[in-house]
Each structure stands twice: as C-alpha cells, then as structure tokens.
C-alpha cells in the first residue's frame, strides 16, 4: 500500500525566504517557485500580500523523481508598479500530507524604484510681506519615490541648503533665515530628485521684504567763504518702500525741497534731494541735517554736515631777533612767529633762504605760534628767515622776514709748501690759507711752540659773507730740519676761537749708516746669524743690496743666505760663509756703503793621528795628532793618559794645527794608549787614542781561570794560553817535555786569536778526552826578545771556585752596585749569587745576577745604613763557598741643610713682625687723616653755604669743526702761583712730536661738550681724520710785546715738549649732539653787548708774572670761562714743592672781573643734595691739603683745575678713568678738584683729554 509523502522543500529560485527583490517600476519580473519530492504532486498557490494571484501568467511544471516522487516548478510573471513597492509575494505548497493550517511556503518582498512626487513649500505664500530682521522658516516637502527624494534649497540661483530628512516615503528640507533688505524680490526654489526622476521637480516663491534706509549721506563742500551759496545733496540708502527726505539748515526746516527716487540694484529704492544754503557772515559754521524716513515702517535715519566759514588770519609777527644783532656761531638763537585770528587758525611755516625748516607749533584759542631754534653756523650769516601765515581763506600767504648776522670762526687752514720737495740748502716758502671767517681771521706761524714772523699777509672775500686770509713764511732748509713741525694758526678775535694746521717738514737727503759698535760679527757653525745695518735717509724708501767680497751672494741648493732690506739672515752657518760683506743703501737722493766682517767659529775635530808607534826599548817615541777648528792654537790640543805621569818623560810641540807628543827613553811601562783631546770651547771636545808600543818579551796571563781547564770524559777539552808581547809571539804546546803535534792529527788542534794590539791567545783543543789526557800541559810564547813558559792543567769538571774578589761600584740612598772577579768555573757555565745583610743584623738577603753578568745592583735598601756583602759561584755540579763578609757599603742619608738656609729659616717670623708693626702704624695714621678731613670739611661747608656753583668736567675732544679754543687747563694752571720759575724746570725732548703730522697749542675759547656715546662713555677718536686738521693755538691778541719776548703759552709744556694731538673731523653745520639731553646744542653765548646775564661765570685765575720764556701773556681784565678740550702728552714738568708756600689757587681775587654768563645756565636746584654727595666723595678720597703738591710733582700728565663751589657733573658709574676727586683743603679753592691722569693703555690717543662744561637747570651737561 502506497503512503503519501509531503514535499521536502520549497523555495523561490535565487531568493531566500523573506528576502527583498529590487526592481524598477514597469520592469518585467519572473519568480520561480520549486516544491520538491512530494507524493502525490503538490499544488502551488501564489499570493500577493494576502490575496491569491490568479492569472494566466502562472506556468506550472511537474517532474517525477526517484521513488515516484514529484517536483513541481511554478513561474509567476509580473510587471511591478508603484503600488507593488513594499508588497510581499508568497509561494505556498498545498498537500494532503500537510496540515491545512500550516502550509509549506516561502516569501519575497518587492522594492520598486519610482520617481518622487512634486515638491511643495510651507511657511510662506506668494504675495505675503516680510520685515527686515524677521525670522523665517520655510519647509520644502515631497511625498513618494523610491528612493526618497533629495531636496535642495536655492536662493536666487545659488544653492543655500542641502540637508534634508526622510520618513518612509516623505522627504523634508527646512530652511531658516532672517530677512534682510537683500532678500527683497529674492527667488527661493526647492528641487526634488532621485535616480528614477528624469529631471528635478521644482517649486519656488518670490519674497517681498520691507526695510527702512540704514543711513543717509550728505555731500557738499565743508568750507565756504562769506556770501557763497553752498550746494548740498542728501542721498538715502536703499529702502522698501522708498524713503522721504527732510532738511534742516541752521536749525530751520527747509520746505519745498525737491527729491527723486531710483531703483537700487541691491534691492529697494534710493531717494536723493538737492538744496542750496546761503553763508551768513555772523556765524563761523553752518550745520545742515538730513532726515530719511520710511513712512510704512516708521523708521528714521539722520546725518549732519558742518560747513566751516573761512576767515583770513592776521599778518605774522617775528620776535626774538632785531636787525643788526650779532649772533656768534655755535650759539642757540630762537625766533618766534605769531599770528592771531582767522578761521581756521593760520598755518605757520618757516623758511631759510626759501628752504622750508621745521619749527615747534603751539596753538591757543585764537592764535598760533611757531618757534624756530637755530644752532647758528656759517650758513646763517646773511641768511633770510621768513615766516609765512596762511589758511583756506588766503590766496597769497602773509609773511615777515628777518636777515641774520652771524660771526663765525674759520673752519680749516691749509698749508702749502713751495717747492714740494725740500732739500738742504734751498729756501722754502710755507703758505697758510685760512677758510672764510667773519670778522676776518688773524693768521700766525709757530715753530715748536715759538711764534715766528710771517710775510705777505693778504685777504679776500670768502664764503657765507666772510673773508679768507693768507700768510707766508720763508724757511732756509737744512738736513737737521727734517721732521720739524711748523704750525699755522687762524684766529677769530671776536669769538676768541682758533683753528690750526701743522706740517712736518720732509727734507730729502741720501742714506747714512750709523757706525756699528764693531766691524766684526762672530757666528757659530750650524747656527743662525742675523746682521742688521740700518741707514737713515729721506725718503725712507731705501733699497739695500748685500755683496760678499764684491760679488753677489749665492749659495748652492737651498737658499741659506737671505737679505731682507737692511737685515742679512744666514741659516746654518758654514765655515765657508766667513768673509767681508758689504751693505749698500740707495734712495732717490744718493747711496751709502758699509762693510762688516763675519767670522765663523766651529768646533775642533781631529783629522788624523799617527798609526801605532813601535820603538825599541830606550829609544825616543813621537806621537802626532792633526786638528782643524776655529779658533785653534796650541792650548786647544792636549794629551792625557789615565794613571800615567805625563810630566816625567813627555813633552809636546805644535805646528800648523798638529800637536806632537814626545816620549823619552821608552820602556815597557810606557806601552799603552795616549789620548789626544781637541777642545776649542766652541763645540764638544773630540778625542782619539794613539798606541805606543815598546818591544818586550812575551808575558803570559797567570790568572786562575787562565791556568786551569776542565772537561768530562769523551768531551772536547779547551786549554787557554794568553800572552802580551811586542812584536807578535809564537805559541808552542808540550806535555812532559814532548812537543805536541798540533793541527797534524785529529787529537790536538790549536785556535789562535789576536785580541788587541798587544794581546794574543792560543787555545789547545783536545778531542775525545780520556783519563790519559788529564794532567799538566806546557804553553811556550816566544818572540825576538825571548820566550816564556807556563803550565796549564786539565782536570775533570767540578764545582766552581769562589770569585776572586768583590768590589763596590756605586752607592745611593737606597741602592748599592757590586762587581766581582770570577774564579775558575769548574769547566761549566757558572751562575752567581750575592748575599748581603745590615751590619747590626744577622739576617741575610740574597740576589741572583743575570746570566753571564759579573755585577749586580741591589735595590730597596734603607737610607744611611751599613751593609755587608759577599758572593758565591755555582754550576751544575755544585756551589762554591761565599767570600767572607768583608765588603761593606753604607747607603746615603738625607743631605743636611746648608748653614745659609738654616739662618734664613728664621727670617719669616721677623718679617711678619715688621709687616704687622707697619700695618698698625698706617692704620693709626689713616684714622687721624679721616678725622682731620671730617673736621676740616664741616668747617668749610659752613663757610661756603651761599656760594654759587659751577660744573667742571673733563672730557674727550668735541668734533665741532675741530675748533678747540678757550682757556685751557694748562692756561688756568699757568695763572696759579704753584709754579716755580723756568730755571727749575729742565727741558727734555719728547720723541713722539717728531712723528706727528700736526701739532697744536692750547688757547682760550668756547667749545661744546663731547659727543658722549650711548653707554655714557667717552668716544675714542682717531689721530688724524681727513686732511683738515684744526687745532687750538694761543691767541696773538694775548701778547703785548714782540714775538721774541713772549713767554710760553703753557708753563707745563716746554718748547721742546711741543706735542701733537688728534683732530676729529668737523660736522658741516657746526652743531654737536648731546647724548644726555638727546638734542642738538650750541656753544654757551659769549659776552656781547646786547645780551644781559644774571649769573656770574666760572672764575679765572690770573697769570703769574714770569721773567723768561718765549711766549709772554699780558695781564687781562677778563677771560671767557674755560670749556675747552686740552690735548697734551704725558710730558708734564714736575712742580716744585716751593709752590706750596704760596697756596694752590686764589680765586677770590678775580671773581669780580669775570664776564657775566647766560641766565640760568649755571643754576642747580639740587645744589644742597649735590654738595652732600661731594662731601662724601671728599671724605672717601683721603688726601690732605699738601697732597696736591705731591700729585703735581709725580708728573704723568696730571692737570689741576679749580673752580669755586663746583656743582657735580653727572657721571655714569662714577668719575671717568683718570679723574680723581681731591679735596684741596682750602676755602678759596672750593669744594672739589678733578685731577686727570693720562693712561696710555686706555685709548689710542697719545694725549691727555680734559675740558670744562656747562650744566642746564637740571644739572645736565650742555
């Protein structure tokens, strides 16, 4: 009976159960369902969703399988649409073997791709209006579509937002924004699209935004003259709807103003309105207001425009200078210009000769002023300074002009020499040309500080309205005048300022050699030799030529002899270099020659000696030794022989470098080496031995090792026989009276040795020694003088004999070297052992010697200890006995200190005591000095409370035109009565003055302070800058007598000490820059009639009368204050102590005769504080009143300055190097002295720099 079988499986081919099938809308789709292995055939049913599909598009096919089972295949053909999206298709198998409620089935779900629905916009409808600033939210949505639609917002064609969201088949894109004026008439478009859409689906809206104008703009002139009608225009920013414009002019509303509206490209409309406003003379300005109103939005914007009414100013007025007033160059002149009234206020401009210059502008309520500060220089003479005033109301500027009159000193002087080349015997003309000066400059000539008379003084018009001057000087040239310095000084007497230039005469002459100390130079062979022969001449360009014996110097191979100008260098002297050398010096003016002899010394060496000299007994012998060397004489050769008395039988002779040694009656004891030694003390001694041989009968060596031999049975026996003889001996061997047949059989052989010139040895060799061979053998030595016989014994081998002797060779503090004479070695190789002990100790120590050595150094011994030594020998058969402990040696101890050192060892304690005592005394003296200074200072301060102060400072030279003038340090010192007369001041020459290209003297003048560097230090100036060397010289106006009767300008500088100084280059405008005040300053004004001053100047010390010298000053009633840089080398004469009795400086005597100074230039509001600071500095200096004379006496370039109650100069980090504050100790001298010392290591200037300066009201140096 057949049973029913349900299907084993069901599937839709290609798809798993509940899988998704993606298909495009309208595309054909075939689903194949297979139900396998059922019996009977299963029925297949297709369902769409929950509904059964009944269609002709279903095809079924049955196939029979094994076991009469059946497989059914069913195909469903469909064309899906949008409705089939998300729809499930199920294949269901019905069989009677299956439960009706649980059929076998499989399902797939369709995903149908189709385009989205049209998009639509929510949140704004066409025709609605928005306000500017309103928040807007627009939603673009699209339904349907697979995949869901992609939504994009566009604003006026520009993409704005892409982000969107989907929910099932609904897509949304939300666009939020704030409405702006630019959004008016903007088109917002939303596009929907997916892969099934042929083209994007679109929807759009046009926005309408209302907005008021953001601003209004008034355009038109901002300035107008009285009576003008001002055209004005007001324009609004874009507005929707258009804005209205309202005008207000001068506080009154303008009616019936016309306006027009245009569409703005940015959206909205622009409104414009034009009016014309009249200008009223009663007002200084016209205020115009424009209102822009959006009536629909009720918003209002306002703009204001001011029109200034222009009024001309008053003409300018110049103050501060009157026509004809004289301004000294280097001083500060201030010009003021003022203009009042005008709208706007006038603009003031200064012009110098039609060139604009800067000024300081100050503006008040109804006036304006321009102050011009002029640092007067040469360009300001006859310069026209013009002040112009103008504003918008003036077509032509208003102006006033002033013409200045400036006195200026010459900037440079130039010296010309005719002819240019100076030679002895000619007359030269020195021409000095001075640059422009106002008033004309006075020119003078100086030589070595002494004025000389010039000729042909002339002048002509120069630059800047000044005068150029010229002066000649005639000079008869001699060779000794080479290097002489002539100085030309040009002085402006009105300004008391001078410049100068110096010329160093270059007299041409041929070379001349200075005689050398010796005409011979000695050198040593193998060493170097340098010979220098320097000639003096002008020009200094001298060519040197060296010759030897009249011929050029030539050396083969490497050049050993080299001439470098006047220097002849010879490396590794040889004896052939000796000879006469000639040095010739040539310049453009001629030539000179000098000879020098070079002697080459070399060590003595032995060239040859006589061969071995052989003589008969009783004859005389002569030995020779030939030597070469330089120097060489009989004393440089000697003969010696150790242990031989040379005085008994020998004598020497010398001839032509050969020394002969004569030995009288030569005997056997004279045989031996005589040593010839050559030593001329140039090199190490050399020596050679000469052998003297006196014929003698042979002598056989009878020492134990030579008389015994030993050998074992069967071995070779060796019997030695050594003899000395002259002439050479012959050896014979015998035994028991029978001569041995040697060298005839293999039993006996003989070896022969010639040991030295006198020693010979014969060795008998016995082959295969047997017992019969042991015994005594005879050795016979024979020559022409006779024969000698000695017995030699052959024994069997045995232990060695003890050494024959033991000797001490050397002793140190911890070592002893011993040597021994070996005994018979027993026929075998012997070794040796040394035994030693301390003398007071029985304990021995042992040391073995090296093989084949007969000496030993024993180390590790104690100092200053006595040791006993002995030695023994040993070989393979045994040992000998030790020698008795008779050899002794004591090691060295520490060397005793010499008596001289022992005495000096006690010296330090005495020295320490002396130093301590001296230190205590100095401490007491210092304490007394400090107490004395404190008491003296307090009494001085109480007496000088009301004294006026000034500032004193020493500084490096200013660079203003290099014009160094004014009363110098030395001229101040000249007037002090601290000087002795000229007779107490010895003159001496400073060699450095001859090397200078320019020289100057010092004189009274006003000078600016130095250009301080940024760090507050003084700059280093080069010695010569450019060609214009300007210097300071004494003013000719100061003398009242003829030139020959003048005293010297500076007592500290003698006429032979006339020295050079560096010359910084001048600035072109004559100004100088002060680093302390960070501004340009000028000279302090001089004493001119139109100027009035309220503060007295620095006091000046009157000159002492002198009765000698070459430059003499007349007494003057007034001298300008010293503020000049003084250059001098450290050649100051010693001030004699006799000046101390007259006091240091007496300032009170001249305090009333000095000129007035600029008002406020010496004020010091911090005077009391500065005086306290000075008091502390004086107390620290520690110098008594008499110390000033001592400081003057020690020289070294010290200069002393004195002023009454000087206020301190601000110094960064204390006084500059070389300035020492000193308390003078006298009330007439003031509170402080500055002493400057020249320090040659501190600068490249070969001069001492010092100067005086002024301070402003703040105490700063100006």
From TrEMBL:
<keyword id="KW-0677">Repeat</keyword>
<dbReference type="InterPro" id="IPR051275">
    <property type="entry name" value="Cell_adhesion_signaling"/>
</dbReference>
<dbReference type="GO" id="GO:0098609">
    <property type="term" value="P:cell-cell adhesion"/>
</dbReference>
<dbReference type="Pfam" id="PF00041">
    <property type="entry name" value="fn3"/>
</dbReference>
<feature type="domain" description="Ig-like">
    <location>
        <begin position="511"/>
        <end position="599"/>
    </location>
</feature>
<feature type="domain" description="Ig-like">
    <location>
        <begin position="316"/>
        <end position="405"/>
    </location>
</feature>
<dbReference type="InterPro" id="IPR003599">
    <property type="entry name" value="Ig_sub"/>
</dbReference>
<dbReference type="InterPro" id="IPR036116">
    <property type="entry name" value="FN3_sf"/>
</dbReference>
<dbReference type="InterPro" id="IPR003597">
    <property type="entry name" value="Ig_C1-set"/>
</dbReference>
<keyword id="KW-0472">Membrane</keyword>
<dbReference type="InterPro" id="IPR007110">
    <property type="entry name" value="Ig-like_dom"/>
</dbReference>
<dbReference type="Pfam" id="PF13927">
    <property type="entry name" value="Ig_3"/>
</dbReference>
<dbReference type="GO" id="GO:0030154">
    <property type="term" value="P:cell differentiation"/>
</dbReference>
<keyword id="KW-0325">Glycoprotein</keyword>
<dbReference type="Pfam" id="PF07679">
    <property type="entry name" value="I-set"/>
</dbReference>
<keyword id="KW-0393">Immunoglobulin domain</keyword>
<feature type="transmembrane region" description="Helical">
    <location>
        <begin position="910"/>
        <end position="935"/>
    </location>
</feature>
<feature type="domain" description="Ig-like">
    <location>
        <begin position="119"/>
        <end position="208"/>
    </location>
</feature>
<dbReference type="GO" id="GO:0050839">
    <property type="term" value="F:cell adhesion molecule binding"/>
</dbReference>
<keyword id="KW-1015">Disulfide bond</keyword>
<keyword id="KW-0812">Transmembrane</keyword>
<dbReference type="InterPro" id="IPR003598">
    <property type="entry name" value="Ig_sub2"/>
</dbReference>
<protein>
    <submittedName>
        <fullName>AAEL003853-PA</fullName>
    </submittedName>
</protein>
<feature type="domain" description="Ig-like">
    <location>
        <begin position="213"/>
        <end position="308"/>
    </location>
</feature>
<dbReference type="InterPro" id="IPR013783">
    <property type="entry name" value="Ig-like_fold"/>
</dbReference>
<feature type="domain" description="Ig-like">
    <location>
        <begin position="410"/>
        <end position="500"/>
    </location>
</feature>
<feature type="compositionally biased region" description="Polar residues">
    <location>
        <begin position="963"/>
        <end position="984"/>
    </location>
</feature>
<feature type="compositionally biased region" description="Polar residues">
    <location>
        <begin position="1137"/>
        <end position="1157"/>
    </location>
</feature>
<dbReference type="GO" id="GO:0009653">
    <property type="term" value="P:anatomical structure morphogenesis"/>
</dbReference>
<feature type="domain" description="Ig-like">
    <location>
        <begin position="698"/>
        <end position="795"/>
    </location>
</feature>
<feature type="domain" description="Fibronectin type-III">
    <location>
        <begin position="802"/>
        <end position="894"/>
    </location>
</feature>
<feature type="region of interest" description="Disordered">
    <location>
        <begin position="1119"/>
        <end position="1196"/>
    </location>
</feature>
<feature type="region of interest" description="Disordered">
    <location>
        <begin position="963"/>
        <end position="993"/>
    </location>
</feature>
<dbReference type="GO" id="GO:0005886">
    <property type="term" value="C:plasma membrane"/>
</dbReference>
<dbReference type="InterPro" id="IPR003961">
    <property type="entry name" value="FN3_dom"/>
</dbReference>
<dbReference type="InterPro" id="IPR036179">
    <property type="entry name" value="Ig-like_dom_sf"/>
</dbReference>
<dbReference type="Pfam" id="PF08205">
    <property type="entry name" value="C2-set_2"/>
</dbReference>
<dbReference type="InterPro" id="IPR013162">
    <property type="entry name" value="CD80_C2-set"/>
</dbReference>
<feature type="domain" description="Ig-like">
    <location>
        <begin position="604"/>
        <end position="692"/>
    </location>
</feature>
<keyword id="KW-1133">Transmembrane helix</keyword>
<dbReference type="InterPro" id="IPR013098">
    <property type="entry name" value="Ig_I-set"/>
</dbReference>
<dbReference type="GO" id="GO:0005911">
    <property type="term" value="C:cell-cell junction"/>
</dbReference>
């Amino acid at each position: 009976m057949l049973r029913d079988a349900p299907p084993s499986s069901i599937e839709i081919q290609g798809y798993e159960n509940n899988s998704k099938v993606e298909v495009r809308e309208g595309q054909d789709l075939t689903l194949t369902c297979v139900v396998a292995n059922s019996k009977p055939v299963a029925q297949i049913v297709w369902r769409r969703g929950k509904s059964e599909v009944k269609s002709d598009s279903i095809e079924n096919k049955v196939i029979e399988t094994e076991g009469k089972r059946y497989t059914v295949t069913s195909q469903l053909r469909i064309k899906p649409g949008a409705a089939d999206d998300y729809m499930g298709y199920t294949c269901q198998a019905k069989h009677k073997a299956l439960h009706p409620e649980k059929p076998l089935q499989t399902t797939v779900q369709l995903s149908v791709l189709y385009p989205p629905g049209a998009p639509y916009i929510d949140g704004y409808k066409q025709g609605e209006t928005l306000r500017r600033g309103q928040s807007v939210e627009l939603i673009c949505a699209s339904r349907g579509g697979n995949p869901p639609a992609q939504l994009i917002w566009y604003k006026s064609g520009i993409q704005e937002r892409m982000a969107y969201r989907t929910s099932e088949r609904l897509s949304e894109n939300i666009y939020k924004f704030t409405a702006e004026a630019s959004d008016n008439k903007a088109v917002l478009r939303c596009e929907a699209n997916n892969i099934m859409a042929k083209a994007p689906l679109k929807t759009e809206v046009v926005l309408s935004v209302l907005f008021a104008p953001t601003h209004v703009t008034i355009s038109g002139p901002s300035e107008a003259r009285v009576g003008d009608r001002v055209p004005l225009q007001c324009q609004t920013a874009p507005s929707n709807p258009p804005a209205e414009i309202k005008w207000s002019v001068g506080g009154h509303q303008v009616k019936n103003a016309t306006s027009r509206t245009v569409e703005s490209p940015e959206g909205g409309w622009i409104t414009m309105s034009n009016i014309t406003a009249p200008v009223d003379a009663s007002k200084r300005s016209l205020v115009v207001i424009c209102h822009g109103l959006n009536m629909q939005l009720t918003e209002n914007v306002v703009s204001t425009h001011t029109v200034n009414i222009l009024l001309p100013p008053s003409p300018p007025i110049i103050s501060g200078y009157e026509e004809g007033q004289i301004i000294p160059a280097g001083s500060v002149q201030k010009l003021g210009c003022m203009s009042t009234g005008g709208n706007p206020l006038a603009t003031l401009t200064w012009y110098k000769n039609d060139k604009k210059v800067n000024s300081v502008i100050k503006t008040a309520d109804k006036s304006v002023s321009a102050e011009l500060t002029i640092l007067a220089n040469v360009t300001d003479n006859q310069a026209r300074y013009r002040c112009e005033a103008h504003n918008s109301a003036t077509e032509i500027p208003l102006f006033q002009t002033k013409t200045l009159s400036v006195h200026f000193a010459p900037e440079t002087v130039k010296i010309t020499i005719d002819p240019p080349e100076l030679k002895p015997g000619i007359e030269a003309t020195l021409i000095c040309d001075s640059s422009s000066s106002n008033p004309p400059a006075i020119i003078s000539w100086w030589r070595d500080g002494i004025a000389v008379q010039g000729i042909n003084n002339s002048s002509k018009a120069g630059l800047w309205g000044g005068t150029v001057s010229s002066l000649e000087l005639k000079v008869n040239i001699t060779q000794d005048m080479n290097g002489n310095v002539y100085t030309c000084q040009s002085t402006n007497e009105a300004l008391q300022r001078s410049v100068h230039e110096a010329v160093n005469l270059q007299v041409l002459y041929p070379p001349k050699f200075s005689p050398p100390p010796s005409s011979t130079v000695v050198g040593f062979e193998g060493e170097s030799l340098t010979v220098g022969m320097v000639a003096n001449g002008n020009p200094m360009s001298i060519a040197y030529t060296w010759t030897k014996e009249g011929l050029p110097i030539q050396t083969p191979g490497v050049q050993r002899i080299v001439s470098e100008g006047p220097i002849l260098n010879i490396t590794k002297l040889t004896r052939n270099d000796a000879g006469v050398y000639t040095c010739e010096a040539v310049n453009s003016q001629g030539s000179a020659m000098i000879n020098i002899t070079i002697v080459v010394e070399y060590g003595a060496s032995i060239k040859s000696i006589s061969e071995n000299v052989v003589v008969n007994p009783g004859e005389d012998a002569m030995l020779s030794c030939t030597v070469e060397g330089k120097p060489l004489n009989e004393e440089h050769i000697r003969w010696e022989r150790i242990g031989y008395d040379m005085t008994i039988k020998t004598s020497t002779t010398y001839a032509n470098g050969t020394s002969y040694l004569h030995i009288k009656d030569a005997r056997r004891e004279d045989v031996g080496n005589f040593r010839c030694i050559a030593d001329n003390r140039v090199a190490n001694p050399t020596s050679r031995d000469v052998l003297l041989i006196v014929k003698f009968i042979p002598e056989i060596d009878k020492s134990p090792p030579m008389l015994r031999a030993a050998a074992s049975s069967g071995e070779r026996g060796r019997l030695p026989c050594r003899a000395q003889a002259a002439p050479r001996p012959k050896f014979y061997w015998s035994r028991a009276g029978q001569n041995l047949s040697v060298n005839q059989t293999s039993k006996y052989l003989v070896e022969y040795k010639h040991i030295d010139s006198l020693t010979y040895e014969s060795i008998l060799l016995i082959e295969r020694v047997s017992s019969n061979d042991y015994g005594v053998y005879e050795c016979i030595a024979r020559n022409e003088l006779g024969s000698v016989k000695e017995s030699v014994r052959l024994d069997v081998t045995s232990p060695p004999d003890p050494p024959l002797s033991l000797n001490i060779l050397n002793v140190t503090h911890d070592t002893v070297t011993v040597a021994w004479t070996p005994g018979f070695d027993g026929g075998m190789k012997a070794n040796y052992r040394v035994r030693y002990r301390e003398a007071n100790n029985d304990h021995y120590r042992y040391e073995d010697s090296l093989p084949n050595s007969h000496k030993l150094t024993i180390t590790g011994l104690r100092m200053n200890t006595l040791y006993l030594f002995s030695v023994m020998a040993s070989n393979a058969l045994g040992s000998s006995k030790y020698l008795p402990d008779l050899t002794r040696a004591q090691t060295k101890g520490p060397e005793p200190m010499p008596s001289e050192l022992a005495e000096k060892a006690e010296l330090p304690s005495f020295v320490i005591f002396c130093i301590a005592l001296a230190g205590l005394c100095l401490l007491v003296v210092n304490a007394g000095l400090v107490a004395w200074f404190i008491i003296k200072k307090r009494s001085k301060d109480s007496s000088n409370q009301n004294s006026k102060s000034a500032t004193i400072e020493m500084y490096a030279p200013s660079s203003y035109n290099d014009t160094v003038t004014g009363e110098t340090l030395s001229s101040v010192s000249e007037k002090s009565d601290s000087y002795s007369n000229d007779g107490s001041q010895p003159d001496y020459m400073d060699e450095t003055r001859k090397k200078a290209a320019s020289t100057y003297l010092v004189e009274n003048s006003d000078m600016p302070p130095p250009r301080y560097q940024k760090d507050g230090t003084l700059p280093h100036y080069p010695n010569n800058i450019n060609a214009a060397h300007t210097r300071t010289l004494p003013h000719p106006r100061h003398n009242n007598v003829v030139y020959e009767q003048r005293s010297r300008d500076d007592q500290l500088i003698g006429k032979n000490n006339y020295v050079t100084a560096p010359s910084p280059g001048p600035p072109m405008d004559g100004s100088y820059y002060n680093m302390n005040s960070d501004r340009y300053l000028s000279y302090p004004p001089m004493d001119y009639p139109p100027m009035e001053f309220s503060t007295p100047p620095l006091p000046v010390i009157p000159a002492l009368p002198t009765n000698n010298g070459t430059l003499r000053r007349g007494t003057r009633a007034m001298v300008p204050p010293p503020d000049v840089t003084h250059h001098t080398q450290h050649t100051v004469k010693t001030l004699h102590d006799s000046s101390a009795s007259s006091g240091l400086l007496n300032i009170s005597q001249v305090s009333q005769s000095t000129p007035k100074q600029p008002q406020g230039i010496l004020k010091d509001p911090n005077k009391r504080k500065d005086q306290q600071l000075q008091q502390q500095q004086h107390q620290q200096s520690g110098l008594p009143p008499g110390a000033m004379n001592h400081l003057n006496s020690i020289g070294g370039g010290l200069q002393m300055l004195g002023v009454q109650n000087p206020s301190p100069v601000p110094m960064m980090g204390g006084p500059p190097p070389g300035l020492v504050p000193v308390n003078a100790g006298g009330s007439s001298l003031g509170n402080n002295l500055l002493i400057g010392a020249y320090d040659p290591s501190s600068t490249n200037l070969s001069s001492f720099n010092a100067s005086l300066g002024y301070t402003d009201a703040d105490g700063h140096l100006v």
